[in-house]
Structures are given as C-alpha cells and as structure tokens.
Amino acid sequence: MVYLEKIKIKGKEYYKLVHAERKNSKVTHRSMYLGRILPSNKRLEQLKKEFLREIRDGRFKYLAQNDIEKIESKRKIYNQKIKKITKTEREKNLKEFIIRFTYDSNKLAGVKASLRQTYLILKEEIIPENIKDTKTIKEIENHERGVIAITEYKGPLNIRFIKKLHKILLSGVDDSIAGKLRSELKRDVKLAGTTHMPPKWHQLDRELNNFFRWYKSECRRLYVLELAALIHLKLITMQPFVDGNSRLSRLLMNWVFWKRDYPMVDIPVEDLENYYDALDKYQIEKKEKPFVDYIKKRYLEEKI
Predict the structure, then answer these.
(1) pLDDT value at residue 65
(2) What is the pLDDT of the chain when averaged over all its residues?
(3) How far is it, in rounded angstroms, from Cα 133 to Cα 123?
(4) Which pLDDT does position 91 carry in this prediction?
(5) Residue 17: what pLDDT?
(6) Phi, psi for 158 (deg, rounded to 5)
(7) In the CATH hierarchy, which fold is given to the domain comprising 84-301?
(8) Contact 20/3 with Cβ under 8 angstroms?
C-alpha cells in the first residue's frame, strides 16, 4: 500500500510517499521524498506508480535490502535522539561534528592544521601561536561556514548554489578563483597520485550540463545514500574548480543527507587510502559501486 504522508521538520511541512508491507509479523516501510510542495493529483498518481514499480523491480541501484534496513535503522535512532535533546544540545552536537569534519576534510585537501588547532579556532575562538599562515585559519573558518550553509540552504541543487558554496570555501584564501568555474578562468587542472585526467576547461560546461541532467533524472529515483555518494563522486571527478573540489563535493554529499534527515558522514584522514582506492575504481575503471559501498561503510560506522 502506498500513501501520502505529511511530516513537520523544524516547523516546516514536507511531503513523502510511504509504502507499507507486512512480512510475517513485521511491517516494513519505504519512502519517497517529495519536498515541501505537494504535486498535482495527476503528477502524484504518476509518482505513486513509479514508486511501486521501483519497489517491484528493485529500487536500489547498488545497495541490497539488508543494507537499506541497516541504514534506515541508524536514521531512525538518529532522529529519535534528536527529538529527545534540547536545541542547545543539538547545536553542541553539530559543532562537535563540524570540528572533526572540518579537520578531516581540510586535512584530506592538504591544509596543515591539527585537530587540536582546529578545535581551538572553531570552539574556543583562539588562534594557536604555531599557526603563522592566516590562509590556514581562513580555510578552517570557511569550512565551518560551508557546513552551516548546507544546513540552512532550502533551494535546489544548481550551479548557483555550487558556486556560492565554493566562494564560501575559498574567500580570503584565493579570491581570484573563489566561486569561479574553470571554464570561466580557462584553466585546466592535474591531479597528483592518479592517472585520472579531469575534463579540459573547454569541456567543463558540457560535463556540468550532463551532471545536472543526470541529477534531475535520478534525484527522486535513487536511494538517498546512493544519490549523496554519486553526487560526491561525479563532482570530485569532474573538478569544476581550480581548487577546493574535494571539500566542496563532501559538503554537497552531506547536504543531501541533512536535507533528508539522515546523519551526516565524515571521512577520517586515517582512512585516506581506502577513500582514494574507491575513487580510483570510478575515475580509472568507471565503477560506481565501490564508492557507494565505501560511503555506506562510513555511514554505518559514523557515531551519532
């Protein structure tokens, strides 16, 4: 049975389709997120049919049913925990995640700052004496602003949002490239440690158009973790900007999780080799599943 459900999140109403199925004594639920605007009756009936067809034919592109059950179980525990704590506690938990996520994401991008230094800058608002480079401080502060931006943004995934997020990350670090695509700057990039070659600057606009066509086609069809992982994968592979692409792609992945009320995911610097191995499987061998599996593993291991 498929039914329409209206939910309230942070005082705002959203709609989703829910499919309930009883297996023995257990009832399982699957949902399709619709957003804040209720579709027309005609469109709603079409979405219901598509939803049922996806369930019948196998909705999930790369994940097995037991993967989904584990992911949804963690999401349920996460949301139950969020409901039980105060606004102050939620803000504290988010701040703690931001500190670790900022440290790891910046470290993966080559920013030289320790976890303690990141903590002092973001939590205590103290500039460590042993950090002499003001750009390092700015990169740490900017990444926090980027995380806050994805938690506040209510619009669609489009080039305007992506450029705005990139500008947040690079403002005061390198204003000459902040928020500007490689195609605008007419610049190519090379990646160290891999044979992958990102598209040339004159090919980039076409690749971005293909990306947004893919997103428009798949954003309602793909399961949330698959969608988040593939957005990350496709953008970091494309390298739309001269610098900051890895941090940007991880932020956009977590924007998908946050928007759908799933816990956000950190990629620890200690797991760098596995992360790059999963990227290589796509960038060199064109295999998406290993990266989706990698993000699934990180999601299930994330503390909440």
Answers:
(1) 85
(2) 92
(3) 19
(4) 96
(5) 87
(6) -145, 175
(7) Fic-like fold (1.10.3290)
(8) yes
Q: How far apart are CA 199 and CA 213, in angstroms?
A: 17
Instruction: Name all contacts of 123-126 with Cβ < 8 Å and 24+ positions apart.
Output: 123/95, 123/99
Exposure b/e, 237-276, CB count within 10 A at least 16 = b:
bbbbbbbbbbbbbbbbbbbbbbbbbbbbbbbbeebeeebe
d(CA 139, CA 95): 17
Query: How confident is the model over 65-71, as a mean pLDDT?
Result: 92
**How many other β-carbons are positioned within 10 Å of the β-carbon of residue 75?**
19
d(CA 304, CA 287): 30
The C-alpha angle 229, 258, 180, rounded to 5 degrees, equals 65
Query: Where do you find CATH 1.10.3290.10 in the chain?
Result: 84-301
pLDDT digits (tens, 9 = 90+) for 211-239: 999 999 999 889 999 999 999 999 999 99
Strands 12-23 and 2-9: antiparallel
